[in-house]
Amino acid sequence: MSNTGTSEQVSLANMDISRTIRESLGRKRVFCAAFLATLAIFLAIAESIIPKPLPWMRLGLANAITLYAFSVMKPREVLLIIVGRVVAASLLLGTFLSIGFVLSLTGALSSFLVMLCMYRLCRRWVSLVGISIVGAVTSNAAQLAVVNAIFVGSRLSYYLLPFLFLFALIGGMISGLFGRFLTENL
Amino acid sequence: MKGFKIGDYVVIVLVVGLILLLFTLIYGSSGSERYIEITGSDTSYIFDPAVNRVVDVEGPIGTTRVIIENGKAWVEDSPCRDKICIKMGILSRPGEEAVCLPNRVIVQMKGDRGGVDGVSR
Predict the structure, then answer these.
(1) Contact assignment for A125 to B5 by CB distance below 8 Å
(2) pTM, full prediction
(3) How far is B110 from chain A (nearest CA, A)?
(4) pLDDT digit string (tens) for B14-57?
(5) Scanning every residue of chain A, which has its alpha carbon at the shortest distance from the alpha carbon of B3?
(6) A145-176, pLDDT tens digit by residue?
(7) Which of A125, A159, B61, B92 has its CA 20 to 30 A from that of A16?
(8) Are residues B56 and B93 in the same domain?
(9) Which domain holds residue A55?
(10) C-alpha to C-alpha distance for B83 and B74, rounded to whole angstroms
């Protein structure tokens, strides 16, 4: 950010994206939703390349797009973006309709509900980082509940719970910071 | 940090507290409710693994000697032919057991099955 001229130009050019999305109507708005969903799919695929010790551990970078979408789109459209992202990313990764897909859909929908409530009710006290952390923890808790429902009597998931929440805290913070960066700069 | 609001810190503190609580709840209490069950031909006994002792169990073909020491248990001596119960070794984790069929003696470490048998990915 040493060159103020270009950084101003860049931010001005970027400002248009948020405004365009906010002011666009009808079919144009669908394109905007598709644009954000594409970004989210890209992030979901990109982070699937990162090796991880456990299949449930995710950074949740795609969640940053959800956080950004909250500021420019209606809840209905955000939901569309999320479902579109989960389905398209699973198709591309080859996990469509597998248990992993069910889990990620569960996590995405539950965290969407909680984050929407938080965004609506306590925006004044909590920034996107806090909302993102709560969303990540919710997502993990919901996924574990589903795992417990599918594999009845599996005690393994209990022992994973603290670790999952720890990763959710870290991942939620990172994607929350990223989401705030997008909201402020896009 | 820049841009953090009061609720963010509340959220972080709550989540960290939840993580610590879960850690202590899930990993802290292991071993406290374990017990050793020794089943003879007509009766069964329950022992505290923390108390060291030598248990002699009378069976149809003789006396099986079980030793309980430092939370572990093992069959020290048995009149049976194959000595499978002795070869089972030291029982230290819940779910492990040593059985002597000829002398009708079962030594079991019981309690909350803490360990993970296996992980499938």
Answers:
(1) yes
(2) 0.68
(3) 17
(4) 999 999 998 888 777 554 578 888 988 888 888 888 888 898 98
(5) A127
(6) 888 888 876 666 777 888 889 999 999 999 99
(7) A125
(8) yes
(9) 4-185
(10) 12
